[in-house]
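Supplementary Methods. Inverse-folding protocol.

Structures were first reduced to a discrete structure-token string of length 402. This string, shown here, constituted the complete conditioning input.
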């Protein structure tokens, strides 16, 4: 019994010594990092590398600490990026006011990290949520952090993995006082159009995440419009190679955009095994992460119809019920394909103009929704600035926004 007590005492003493050693190590850290980022999935890693390329010193932390070591030994090798193995060490590396960007899953994970960070922060420090959070959550979190003397930013980041690495569209909102402390970093790493950064302050509280939500809703609409244009041309008898040339040609005119460009690229791909167009081998079901649905729900709450975006969301929902559609197809035949009568080129141009007109409707509805939200939440949104932010870096970037 005495031996057991002695062993426990020895373990406790060793733990205490280790803890004191760690504390002493943290106290001796000189803060040199301009910003810190938590969450080293691909988006987080690419943003960190982007910041490093633009001359900023970044400290990183991940809940699974081994990811920090893997990152430093891999993509971040021979950079100024600083890895931390605890939150205490991570925070100690940051200059005041501390700027901490969270790239974690939206929802409870954001709230959990905020609560974990708070004991280590001081008044004036800034927490930045770079995920796809619901703007209502960002409203709540901004008020909560400000009540504790700290600042909060909820920012949309669009452009996917490539955008994060080489220049995304960034849509920040939240505590207005925080903007001056992150402006140089955000605008430096953002995409540029004619040397202008695709990043500007959007507005108070959840305004940034609201604008990103509308962006994603418009993205849903754009993708559905492209699908319908494809369907019309396919129904008229155009082959995939012919449609590929059509989309490539469209990308040289008023429809020049990221989504039209990658549609042309996708239609050019062939399946390695069958040699058939890859698009014909892909299952006709689509998932969604929620932002499009939030756009439609918010439009109903504000009484501002976004009919095109809503139909795009419902089309995704319909695509997801594959078994029901297969069962229905056995009882109700699809319309027979009819041979196009008249000029193919004229028909294709009619589809192009219909697509262009529909884009105008979709974007107009999105901006009307932002205007309704600005009135409801007392935001001062600069719509020209929003259009500028969407001209580069993001998924809906296009010549159209000029």
């Amino acid at each position: 019994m005495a031996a057991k007590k002695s062993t426990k005492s020895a373990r406790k003493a060793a733990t205490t010594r280790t803890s004191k050693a760690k504390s002493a190590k943290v106290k001796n850290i000189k803060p040199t990092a301009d910003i810190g980022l938590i969450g080293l999935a691909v988006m987080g890693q690419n943003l960190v590398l982007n910041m490093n390329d633009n001359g900023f010193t970044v400290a990183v932390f991940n809940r699974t600490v081994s990811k920090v070591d893997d990152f430093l030994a891999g993509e971040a090798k021979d950079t100024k990026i600083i890895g931390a193995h605890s939150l205490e060490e991570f925070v100690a590396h940051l200059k005041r006011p501390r700027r901490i960007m969270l790239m974690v899953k939206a929802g409870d994970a954001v709230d959990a990290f905020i609560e974990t960070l708070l004991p280590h922060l001081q008044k004036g420090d800034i927490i930045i949520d770079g995920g796809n959070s619901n703007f209502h959550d960002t409203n709540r979190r901004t008020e909560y952090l400000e009540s504790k003397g700290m600042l909060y930013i909820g920012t949309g980041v669009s452009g996917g993995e490539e955008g994060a690495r080489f220049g995304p569209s960034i849509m920040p909102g939240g505590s207005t006082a925080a903007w001056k402390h992150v402006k140089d970093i955000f605008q430096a790493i953002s995409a540029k159009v004619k040397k202008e950064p695709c990043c500007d302050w959007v507005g108070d509280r959840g305004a940034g995440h609201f604008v990103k939500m509308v962006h994603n809703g418009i993205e849903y609409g754009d993708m559905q419009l492209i699908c319908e244009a494809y369907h019309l041309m396919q129904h008229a008898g155009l082959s995939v190679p012919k449609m590929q040339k059509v989309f490539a040609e469209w990308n040289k005119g008023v429809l020049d955009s990221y989504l039209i460009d990658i549609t042309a690229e996708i239609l050019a791909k062939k399946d390695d095994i069958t040699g058939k167009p890859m698009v014909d081998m892909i299952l006709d079901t689509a998932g969604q992460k929620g932002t499009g649905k939030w756009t439609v729900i918010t439009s109903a709450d504000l009484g501002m119809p976004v009919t095109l975006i809503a139909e795009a969301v419902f089309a995704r929902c319909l695509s997801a019920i594959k078994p029901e559609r297969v069962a229905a197809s056995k009882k109700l035949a699809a319309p027979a394909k009819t041979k196009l009568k008249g000029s193919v080129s004229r028909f294709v141009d009619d589809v192009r103009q219909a697509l262009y007109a529909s884009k105008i409707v979709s974007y107009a509805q999105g901006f009307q929704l932002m205007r309704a939200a600005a009135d409801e939440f007392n935001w001062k949104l600069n719509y020209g600035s929003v259009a500028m932010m969407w001209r580069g870096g993001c998924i809906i970037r296009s010549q159209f926004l000029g």
